[in-house]
Design a protein that fits this description.
The chain is an all-alpha fold. It has one domain: Na+/H+ antiporter like fold, CATH 1.20.1530.20. Helices cover 81% and strands 0% of the residues. The longest helix is centred in the middle third of the chain and has 46 residues. It is globular, with a radius of gyration of 26 Å. About 8% of the residues have low confidence.
Length: 410
């Protein structure tokens, strides 16, 4: 197929995303006062996080993923994991080479590691299938398979983002808050009393009496033996707190697990998914709620870009580094990985499947990065700058890479 025709097919879905993003930016203007305030954006962000995103993941997976498709698509989780690992490694090199400030390191690592595996594939892949002259055959069959591939990509990406990237940003944001607390309390009241010789001489007898009383009290109490079950439960609670399991099982992750269970287990499919299912209205309602997630997330990206216009010059070197990682280095590495997997027979010969595997390496940073930074209140302005620059470049790079990938798999 001619390269120009493939270019037009790849351009249309990207333009759809851009139009919705521009609408979000327009709604964030002060004159309209719809998404201009931080409160409005955070409220919409909360709805997306707790309602739209879990419903979208659960509904899409339940409809399109079956036990057969999971066996066939086993390489996709590994492929997405490789995008995260390689992206994080390249992001770490970027942090070290450019000496990124400590408060931005978590953001840079997250943006390099996590691609937009959610709404972009769900928009781009089905939209490519319905275009005239699409290279993947029958439009209906292509749309059905493309939706299944994109849904699985979104679900796996969601699990990785909210289990890996979420904790990376959380760790760095907690380090920042701890440093601020230390800086704010360089001289505490206790240290001031200790440095005062008069207070030392006055309080020393009192402190000695207190310590002696504590020693006598602890010695007088006999150690009680706890049952083994209680000890095990306490150890599990401590382990859960250290691993932050609540953060690991984010609403979208739970939605992905529920959707996979419904899709894979035949009984649940008969009850909820198949035609004339007894409880099919539940699935229809879930899909209806989830369909609002894609435009809502894209509108939030556009609304957050307003902040990015102000700080673009200041963060220019970091932005350029992230663009190089996400739009040049990762796609080039991805071609080698996917072609190597095809050569060794690890991927079944479906051009559409190979296309989406390649596409996963060329996506801009995940929209969830805006959600994560807003949840922690860390580096929101810098995240807006990165989103503005990367999504502006994605209009060109994603179109060119998509065109090249379609040519490559045919």
């Amino acid at each position: 197929m001619e390269f120009w025709k493939l270019f037009v097919v790849a351009l249309m879905p990207v333009l759809k995303v851009l139009l919705i993003t521009v609408l979000g930016t327009f709604l964030a203007l002060d004159r309209l006062d719809i998404l201009s305030s931080e409160t409005a954006r955070k409220n919409l962000n909360t709805i997306v996080f707790f309602v739209f995103l879990p419903a979208l993941v659960c509904g899409s997976l339940a409809e399109t993923v079956t036990s057969r498709s999971i066996i066939t698509l086993w390489f996709m989780p590994l492929n997405i994991l490789l995008t995260f690992i390689i992206g994080a490694a390249l992001g770490w090199l970027l942090v070290k080479l450019m000496r990124v400030p400590h408060h931005l390191q978590g953001l840079v690592l997250g943006c390099c590691a996590a691609g937009n595996l959610g709404n972009l594939p769900l928009i781009i892949v089905p939209a490519v299938c319905i275009q005239r002259g699409n290279p993947f055959g029958d439009a209906d069959s292509c749309h059905r398979k493309g939706l299944a591939y994109a849904s699985l990509s979104m679900a796996i990406g969601t699990v990785y983002i909210w289990s890996i990237v979420y904790n990376i940003v959380r760790i760095y944001s907690s380090k920042i808050t701890n440093e601020v607390k230390v800086d704010d309390s360089m001289i505490s009241p206790d240290s001031a009393l200790e440095n005062d010789p008069e207070n030392i001489s006055k309080d020393r007898p009192h402190t000695n009496h207190v310590k002696q009383f504590e020693i006598e009290f602890t010695n007088s109490i006999e150690p009680t033996k706890e049952p083994k079950n209680e000890k095990i439960m306490k150890q599990l609670k401590v382990l859960a707190e250290k691993m932050k399991l609540k953060a690991l099982f984010a609403p979208a992750t739970i939605g992905a697990i529920v959707g996979l269970i419904i899709g894979v287990v035949p009984i649940f499919r008969k009850i909820l998914i198949v035609n004339n299912a007894p409880l099919g209205v539940i699935q229809d309602s879930l899909v209806m709620v989830g369909d609002a997630g894609i435009p809502a997330m894209t509108l939030l990206v556009g609304a957050n870009l307003i902040k990015g216009l102000k700080g673009l010059v200041k963060q220019f070197p970091i932005v350029v580094g992230i663009i190089v990682v996400r739009f040049i280095a990762l796609p080039a590495i991805g071609i080698g990985i996917v072609k190597g997997a095809i050569h060794f027979g690890l991927i079944h010969p479906d051009p559409l499947y190979q296309f989406i595997l390649l596409l996963q390496f060329a996506l801009p940073p995940a929209v969830a990065m805006s959600t994560i930074t807003q949840l922690f209140g860390a580096s929101e302005g810098e995240c807006s700058v990165i989103m503005l620059a990367t999504y502006s470049c994605a209009a060109f790079s994603l179109t060119l890479w998509s065109t090249f990938f379609m040519w490559l798999v045919l």
